[in-house]
Amino acid sequence: MRIGNNVKLGVNIDHIATLRQARRDIDPDPVAAAQVARSAGADMIVTHLRRDRRHIQDDDLMKLAKLKGDLHLEMADTPEMLAIALRAGPASVCVVPESAKEVTTEGGLDLRNGSKSLAKTVAKLKKAGIEVSLFIDPEAGGVRAAKALGADTIELCTTAYCSAGNKAKIQAELERLELAGYLAHEMNLNLHAGHGLDYHNVQAVSRIPHLSALNIGFSIVARSVFVGLKAAVVEMKHLIN
């Protein structure tokens, strides 16, 4: 949950691994990146183990899970990923939709018709003592469905907000996020947000009432090319608080 007026920062280190995988080499090491991010004030380390292993690898995840501090794993709802999550034992898991052809996650989970598989996954993760988040679009139906499925937390997808082309659309998307956040609070769900946030658009989202954490990756890694990872994390931490 939110601590005082501070919003926690989850730093996603996937794209450190993307750079490494371009050469199938050992550098840059995402585990070392996680340690630098923590030293700069990251509250959580976030990583997405994709089914195609395009960036983070299984061995990376197991090493990250051994580091001190909270590890937040993003994963698809598959038997393989559930087994890996239970073996790694991160502090929390966010279940996300995943498509083989997508460049990056394209939106929230479709929870309109419920999901027996997802409900079982949530229950198994919670039984193992892992906090469970569901990545959803900022809609009332998704918030209610997440609660019904047993989630502890929702992460609101900020893609539409980040891609809004003018002030009116930006404001409309921000209001959608706020309304979904109010409903989450009423339903005793922890509130996270993320996807597409950067140094130019993050501040308005960071002020959403009841928000406890923002999960940000690509923009921090991109910024780190010019200023270094530690400075990039410090800059983002300053912006959201």
CATH superfamily heading: Aldolase class I
CATH classification, class level: Alpha Beta
Strand content: 15-25%
Name of the CATH architecture: Alpha-Beta Barrel
Rg from alpha-carbon coordinates: 17 Å
Largest sheet: spatial strand order: 1-2-3-4-5-6-7-8
Report the strand count: 8
Distance from N terminus to C terminus (CA atoms, Å) equals 15 Å
- What fold name goes in the CATH topology slot? TIM Barrel
- What is the approximate shape? globular
* Percentage of residues assigned to helices: 40-55%
Mean residue pLDDT: 94
Category from helices, strands and their pairing = alpha/beta
Please identify the oligomeric state. single chain
Polypeptide structure, described:
The protein is of the alpha/beta class. It has 11 helices and 8 strands. It has one domain: Aldolase class I (TIM Barrel), CATH 3.20.20. The chain is 45% helix and 17% strand. β3 (70-75), α4 (79-88) and β4 (92-95) form a beta-alpha-beta unit. α6 (140-148) runs parallel beside α8 and α10 packs across α11. It is globular. The model has no long low-confidence stretch (mean pLDDT 94).
Summed up, what is this model?
It contains eleven helices and eight strands.
Features:
single chain, alpha/beta, TIM Barrel, eight-stranded parallel beta barrel
What's the structural blueprint in terms of helices and strands?
Blueprint lengths: L7 E5 L1 H8 L8 H10 L4 E5 L9 H8 L4 E6 L3 H10 L3 E4 L20 H12 L3 E6 L3 H9 L4 E5 L1 H5 L3 H20 L3 E5 L7 H5 L6 E4 L1 H10 L1 H12 L1
Parallel strand pairs: 1-2, 1-8, 2-3, 3-4, 4-5, 5-6, 6-7, 7-8
Helix pairs in contact: 6-8, 10-11
